[in-house]
Design a protein that fits this description.
three-stranded antiparallel beta sheet, 3 domains, 32 helices, mainly alpha
Length: about 700
Amino acid sequence: MILPLLLALLLTAGGALATYIYDEDCPVAARLCTGACIGLAAFGLIGFMLASLLGLTPLSIGLATLVTISPCALLLDPFYRVQIRADLELASQKIRQAIARPSRADLGYFLYYAIAAILFGLIFDRAMIQKPDGIYTGVLNNFGDLPFHLSVITGFAYGHNYPPEDPTFAGVRFTYPFLTDFISAVFLRCGASLSNSVFIENLVVRWPFLRPLVFCSLRNSMFIENFLLAIGFMGVLHRWAWEMLRDRVAALLTPLLVVLNGGFGWALLVTFAGKNDQGLFGVLAHLPASFTVIPETTWRWGNAISSLLVPQRGILLGLPLAVIVFTQWWLATGERTDTEKGRHGDTAQGAPKKLWGARKLKDKNETGERRPSTAIFKNSPTARMVAAGVAAGLLPLVHAHSFVVVMAVGAGIALLQRRWRLWITFAVVASLIAVPQMLWSTTGSAVKASSFFAWEFGWDHGQENPVWFWFKNTGLFIPLLIAAILWRGKDYLVSRRLLHFYLPFTLCFIVPNMVKLAPWIWDNVKVLFYWWVASAPLVALLLSRLWHEGQVKRAIAVALFVCLTLAGALDVASIVMRSGEFQLFDPNGVRFAEVVKEQTQPRSTVIHAPIHNTPVFLTGRRSLMGYPGHIWTHGIDFGPRESEIKRIYSGAPDAELLLGKYGVDYAVVGPNERLVMPVNNEFFSRFKKVGEAGEYRLYKIKP
């Protein structure tokens, strides 16, 4: 795991140093969180382009790394070097002071992020569990998604899947955003490069305890990325809330309201306790998998961690990138352009206050060096909008729904603010980076766009009244949001500027409640969740106001916060307390996957049962067809191919013609195939058996 960790740290450093070009006043901790997200995303896009030309080789990985960490060249400039050194010394001084004489605030911040890091470590440790008796997941909502992501990662790492085909539907262009999985594939290959070293292998043989530290397994390749992005998401959310609200309590509450979201699902504790012999204590000792999204019911909202960040890896990178964009929007539109400064003067009414902890940028730094040309634009609205455009432009192959949200909300804010020069700058920069990705991914696509859009009122409410459905699923969140907007003391709690900035985000609630935005209606949550993210700071501001207005209202604030987050916290506790483990691959399946990798070529096409957890997904080989549910959500018509696969396995008269039609190289016959459809053993006996493990058999179809 050493090389992937070093690579991740380098990318974080490169992304963090890049922030000095446009964001002088950003605290060091926020720079690191921003740097992790920007660095990984930029590396993913650059690395994928190079891998498409050169393959996923040490050369392409090295070149992508050099380009991504190119902001390290800022260290060569005396002006930037002094500023960076000053920031690091200030951060070091604060750390030493916090250790020597910790204040209540210092202790609070430390515990806040330490607990978050520990919890995210425990959570993502459960995303994929490797045991002697197979591969499991400790997150129920990850049961269907994990094998799919494994197929994408192994396709890039082992299957030479460039240009990428859908790993679950061979021969079709892959249009699902995949950069998060590509980054994990790079980490996996970095670990594999060490395993090919004779010196390292001898070292591990001598000291076996070093193996997990040196080699990067499939599980660890995902864990490194997941953990960094989760912490980065908390950090950029915290900074965004602080910049908008300038309220420390509200800024701390905002990330918690986002990641522990839920509704009144905690009320199910009473129901579960009544059915448990040990009552409430018995339920708490063995928590159900979820209190926020339950199959075959109208509990559909889902907790961010258990329903989005763990199973849907694209949104884990898409969300922090979008929040970085929102932060720069807010800062850019609160600052005056050079034209406005000349018109109104530096003391014009409404000029923004200096950021907390910021140091005024002078024409010369402490060394007497002149500011470089890039520093002239630091903190300028235009520079911030350019940076926001770059971050937004990275989104299409990371998480397409996030890109659509960012561009649509940006257009809405632009219409309200009418600062056209800034918003046109943002749109042009974002389009220059994003449009080529969109054109590339949609050209020759087999996706039926018509399957993504249809009128559907009330989202996934089923037969339940939509108003009650939303109240049940989101609890007191919407009433508190309305109260925050209407709350008025000497002045409104939510300022006019903040309200205008927030209003376009309401489209993320209104549109998904009117229109289906994906073949599976539940996937509208990928847009709906942005309404929650944008609303959380306003609700947090209301709770903070109550917290500061006496003991009685402080108790009310605590009760409201618990009510808002208890259901999500129970979902997280269920994961951390290891309440359940769900097997995906049995030990014979894992061994069979190694047999397939040994006996087949990387670009081989393999036919198997159309299920979500075939061992073929661990090999990177092209699957003729995976789980129909996944393929349907991608907007692909799978019906004809599914019926023909069944004809092949039944040994129909045209079975060999169908194998030739699809260019099948190998066929799997095992317990999964026999479970889901009739298998004609006599038909497959015509072909050479080239490998087996347990009940799994691999047959070579092509001579």
